[in-house]
Design a protein that fits this description.
The protein is α/β, with parallel strands linked by helices. Helices cover 35% and strands 28% of the residues. The protein is built from 2 helices and 3 strands, in the order βαβαβ. It has a 3-stranded parallel β-sheet, with helices on both faces. Strand 1, helix 1 and strand 2 form a beta-alpha-beta unit. The longest helix is centred in the first third of the chain and has 14 residues.
C-alpha cells in the first residue's frame, strides 16, 4: 500500500521530527510503502483544506494513486 506522511507544527520553534518518528513507525508497522513526506508549519486554527502544503498532499495523492495519508493529528 502506497502512503504519504503529513506533519504539521504551529511555530518555527516546534520540531516536526517527533511527529515524523511516530507516524513513520506506524506506517512501517502497517507495511505501508511511504513514497513522500510533507511537512508544514501553520496554525492548527487554519482549516486543513486551506493549508497550502495539505492541499499539495491531496493533489499528490490524487495524481499518484496513493492509498493512505498518515498523520499524527489533523488539528
Amino acid at each position: 500500500m502506497k502512503a504519504v506522511i503529513y506533519t504539521r507544527v504551529s511555530t518555527d520553534e516546534q520540531n516536526p521530527k517527533s511527529q515524523l518518528t511516530v507516524v513513520e513507525e506506524y506506517a512501517k508497522s502497517k507495511g505501508y510503502d511511504v513514497v513522500r513526506v510533507f511537512e508544514e508549519s501553520i496554525s492548527g486554527s487554519v482549516n486543513p483544506l486551506e493549508r497550502p502544503v495539505f492541499k499539495e498532499v491531496l493533489k499528490f495523492v490524487r495524481e499518484n494513486n496513493i492509498d493512505a495519508i498518515v498523520m499524527h493529528d489533523i488539528t
